[in-house]
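Deviations from the work plan: none for this task. Representative record:
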Amino acid sequence: MYTKHFPKKIQALLLSAALLGASGAAIADDIKIGFNSDMSATGSADFGISALAGARQAADDLNAAGGVLGKKVVIVERDDVGAPPKAIQNTNELVDNVKVNAMLGGVNSGNMLAWLHIVQQKKIPTISPVATATDITNRYAKTPPNYVFRVSMRDRDQIALLAAYAARSSQSGKVAIIADTTGYGQQGAKDALEILALHKITPVANEKFGPKDTDMSSQLNKIKASGADTLIVYALADSNAHVMRSLEKINYFPTTLASWANLSSPFLRIAGPELAKKMIFTASITEDSSPQSKTLYDTLMKRDGRVPTYVMAAQAYDSVKLIAAAMEQAKSTDGAAVQAALQQLSQAQGVIKNYQQPFSADNHEALSVKDFRLVRWIDGKVVSVDDDVTRKITPDDLKL
Amino acid sequence: MQILQAILSGLAMGSVYALVAFGFSITYTTTKTFNFGQGAFLALASLIGISAILLVTQGKLIGFPSPEDVTWGTFLFALLAAMLVLSLLGFVLYVTAIKHFVGEAGLSWVMSTIGFGIIIQNLALLIWGPAPIAVASPLGEGIITIFGTGVRPQEILVFCTTLVLMIVFDWALHKTKMGKAVRAVAFSKSTASLMGINANAVAIAVFVISSALAAIAGVMIAPIATASVFVGTLLSLKAFSAAILGGLENPRGCIFGGFLIGLLESLIGLWYSNLREIAVFGLIIVVLYFRPAGILGRVHAEKV
């Protein structure tokens, strides 16, 4: 009995070992792209969920077309719960254990900045599909090769478009700024001040409010008294909604311009559909801006039933497409080779646009102010603003 | 007109600070402790309120209520549900995190109440998630214009509710048996016990009342500030400042402090918004320098 069973056990062991080896080899053979973002804990979690949906869809589309370098593309996601220590832990795990070939960043700039040194040291090409802080792509710009790229909207580029609109739309030339006291709001206010100066506009008022404030009527009353007919707001989604509610309270409706933070659904819910309409803000794409965009939106909707912020999904989709194109061009998944290929990428087809040399050694931003549009919420949808002012804006107006 | 606008806005926010500050005051005077997790209690109350409205109108507990869902009936139900749950929680807080430390030297109760608050906040985060939830006012979202300045009906409601509650509590504290018992325990727990007052029952009662006040503040403020896990932290910090500024041991002082901070914030915003927080906390430091027990507080000689 014993002699009979023993070889069978060994056989079974050998068989399962072989199977494990085979599946292990298959996983090792995949191209793995890490995705490290908040998807549950902060107000930006919706952005992370949307970006992940976009990245996964890009992988599915690539795999349906035969994969990259004949290999399957897999997105390996980790939730950083909005906490920098968790974001660092995720990155170490993705780089050292999962052995990802590339990384996509998260939604909070601060979190992403916390782990960039890891991917830079380990030579993992990284794209930020959402986070907007200037320093993300700048930090290693002076010590090339810089492994960090972006397919998103840098804050300063967004403000350049807002300032161009303000300069064209203001009748009285009186423009005011209001921003929250977070790093995001204050950097935005500083950039706005500098870019308005390029248009020879000195704001008639520059006000602040706390990030948890819900009544800004005192500050806005001051702005009203200054005679401003255009207002640039730089704050997060829920604060922007409270600014709109406070404007309603004092019955003052200047042309109100803001960043893409307003894409976040809390803005629409807190301000309500009527007040939300009055805010003009930036975006890189809308679901109906092109047939390809419409197709991606419909596919995502069919799969998940909802896309909280479509723009983030589109940017993450394009980020994966750019990584894939660079790997094809480099004919390798080696980090250094892919980094070099990204910098010399001749072209890649994305959903936001057809990228022609999106990056160079000096420029790690795939999108710039020229690629942005102004949008507003109409009937629960983000719609491009097409008015006399937007039609008059020329490339010369986009001062940086 | 600008000044009137600032005054109206300041009174609305100030009344919320006053409500929560009063809650700090009554527990402090009777037990020399208070709930440092009051902000989490307030946030939880606003979220329970949302769930109560959703339960009645949409038959679910988590989601976003539409403006039509908020009627007087659903709003009052939300208020009652939040008060009931929070009163119970106030009792649990007292038994688990406060009772053992009452009358003891040391600051263990500070940590235990902060810990209790953090547990509540994280449980709420697990259940309701981080997104702020907008909720309409039962009075509608229109703007009422008074002498050319705009005010939301909910702001008037919050102000009036606070005023009525404060008058009722002031009367109850000074004129009813229960109020006298509370004041007696506050004056001297041992003497009150000798007089046949159940000091333990009084302590439980004040924690229940304090938590119920946080519940009222949380539900009433939701249509103004939205309901979210994070809404209470700053509100309770301002309320705590109001209590210290007015005089933690004097309930009337706390209410006065609440309105004072609300008005100050709003009026300084009108002048130079960058100075707002500096002015509020600067004033607190200056007041405490000259009057360590707060504007309306009285310094007692400590007996050892």
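Residues 92 and 118 of chain A are 7 Å apart (CA to CA).
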